[in-house]
Design brief:
Residues 31-380 form the Aminotransferase class I/classII large domain. With 390 residues, the protein is of the alpha/beta class. 42% of the residues lie in helices and 13% in strands.
Length: 390
Amino acid sequence: MNIAEMVLPTVRQVPPSGIRKFFDLVNEMKDAISLSIGEPDFVTPWNIREAGIYSLEKGHTHYSPNAGFMELREEICKYQERKYNLKYDPKTQVIVTVGGSEGIDIALRALVGPGDEVIIPEPCFVAYKPCTIFTGATPVIVNLSAENEFRLTPELLEKAITDRTKVLILPYPNNPTGAVMEKKDLEAIVEVLKDKDIIVISDEIYSELTYGVKHVSIASFPEMKDKTVVINGFSKAYAMTGWRLGYCLGHPDLISQMYKIHQYAIMCSPTTAQYAAIEALRNSDDDVEAMVREYNRRRRIMVEGFRSAGLECFEPLGAFYVFPCIESTGMTSYEFSERLLMEEKVAVVPGTAFGECGEGYVRSCYASSMDNIIEAMKRIKRFVERNRKK
């Protein structure tokens, strides 16, 4: 028996994540600085950790309800209303998931299958396209550009829509570019979508991490509330990546079907993480604000560092990434990233890990210490000056 051939072609055709290769290499390299993994360098705030510890000491180590503790779902709804003016029923419109990634997966599995199309703006988070392929649906890629600061425009969206389009994934604030969609940008998208039978999966995991602008959810538009699944979580804003906790918000008729997939595949999210998340939503706004202030300092240093090295770099207003153009070096994204790691011991991610239109760019993450960022930018400048295309 050829075991490899027993695996479904839809799975075999999907390559491993391009991010992890550089992460693994840098772990083997002494004195290397990693700007490659999108993970906060902060430790989860103490009050959140303490809530998790206390739940363990109290013996709260059993399953939770499939959709998550009602207390947590209530806090999620209060938070969304307070922050983004979004009103949801904690009983019927919320599922607590194992990270935001599970939410994306179960939303797609509930909505699409063979013959359906999913519009995916790229560059984007690496999981959208594979998760779509795993359902048997067809990813329809919309290539974004620095000219529009990597924002989805109504013209690009219109061109991508066909009679088979069922879902649009809207990933803002964006990984890897740091782009945001402001209210005026979303208004134009809503005009395209409001009369169409298309569901939006709005990945808002970086909603708290914006600089000089406020995050606006497409679900806050009355025409889009019922047609949007909001994906959010605790990993990025609260530095809780290892706790693996996220949530989905949406229309009861859709959430109830996503719930079944979650129920049979996962059963429930980690209990300890849920108790910690309740504390995060109730009492950690100040911690998030402090982290955002520090990210903003680092963001400015990194953008200026790339520009001083002679690389074009638009100003990202969200998440914790910078996406500079490296075309002036004459190298491909992969070559630039590999040589930078080998020659200067700095790890960034090739833009092509996030879609073909990422060629000519690299992703650099500023969720690292200021000392690391300053040293990395010195090394990058030295590398660029040494290798710039004559």
